[in-house]
Design brief:
single chain, 11-stranded antiparallel beta sheet, 7 helices, globular, alpha+beta
Length: about 290
């Protein structure tokens, strides 16, 4: 089979195999603001099952097997804080997600919203029994999980948007950059920032090698109608900048996918995304996942 041909590079088949695939993933967020530094890292193992098509969409069952916090050395944190225990408790509403994608493996929507809401009701009751002071947090989740809001909640999820990579069964010419528009949620504090992600496909020279590499870079989409210039200006006003000084917002973005063209799956994905404002503020998101 001639792997390194323009035809195969431009039409990577997406697997229809229903055999469960097992993954491990880490999602890290780090923020630096002056002397203050925050770090959160969650690891999870999960199983992905292809359920077939329903209408125009492909459906996948994502079942979380385990989830835990990591320290900065990537060791499991054994003694959790109150906030970490609450975070793990709330996260269980996502233990069983039915994700719908298009034919290119792009995340479109969550298909099992009733399951999520039912799980939340059980978690909600337990949280308020253990922590009566969490009324405001619980009310916020109630609002986010309403019919008019729940799809946006998952469509804005950075991990789902990276994992479901939108790279199959479409024109992907070799060694040329392709642009796709995305939005990074909570890029600067709670502010979402539109970007233009640039993807470059590198097909191996060895015809017997089935792993195709796709490298990622990006720039901010400052011409996007929803680019949050007012929100960013307001946030800058909260930072201890010298009056009249110019503080540039910068983006450093790099990533990679390893795609098995024979199996029609992504075997590994990595992303490192950092937004910074001069030396006053920096926020980094790191996502890694791989098939076990």
């Amino acid at each position: 089979m001639q792997i390194a041909t323009p035809h195969i590079a431009s039409n990577i088949r997406l697997s229809d195999d229903s055999t469960p695939r097992h993954y491990s993933a880490e999602i890290c967020n780090m923020t630096k603001q002056g002397e203050k530094k925050t770090y959160t890292a969650v690891a999870q193992t999960f199983q992905l099952n292809y359920l077939g098509t329903k209408g125009a969409l492909r459906h996948y069952q994502m079942n979380i097997k385990d989830r835990f916090f990591l320290n900065e050395r990537y060791n499991i944190i054994q003694k959790l804080s109150k906030a970490q225990n609450i975070g793990l408790k709330v996260a269980t509403i996502n233990d069983k997600l039915e994700c719908a994608t298009n034919d290119q493996f792009k995340f479109i929507e969550i298909a099992n919203t009733p399951t999520i809401r039912n799980a939340w009701q059980n978690v909600r009751t337990d949280l308020l029994e253990m922590h009566p002071d969490l009324n405001k947090m619980v009310e916020n989740f109630d609002q986010q999980l309403k019919d008019e809001n729940i799809q946006q909640l998952y469509q804005n999820d950075n991990f789902l948007n990276f994992f479901f990579a939108d790279i199959f069964q479409q024109e992907l010419p070799q060694n040329k950059e392709l642009e796709t528009k995305k939005t990074i949620a909570n890029a600067v504090e709670q502010i979402a920032i539109p970007i233009i992600e640039k993807r470059k496909v590198n097909v191996p020279e060895d015809d017997n090698e089935t792993i195709i590499t796709m490298s990622l870079s990006a720039e901010m989409d400052t011409e996007h109608p929803n680019f949050p210039i007012k929100a960013l200006t307001a946030f800058l006003g909260t930072l201890p900048a010298t009056p009249g000084s110019q503080q540039a917002l910068k983006l450093n973005y790099s990533g990679i996918y390893h795609i098995d063209s024979e199996q029609g799956t992504i075997t590994q994905g990595s992303l490192n995304c950092t937004f910074s404002i001069g030396k006053l503020y920096e926020k980094t998101m790191i996502i890694n996942y791989s098939i076990e």
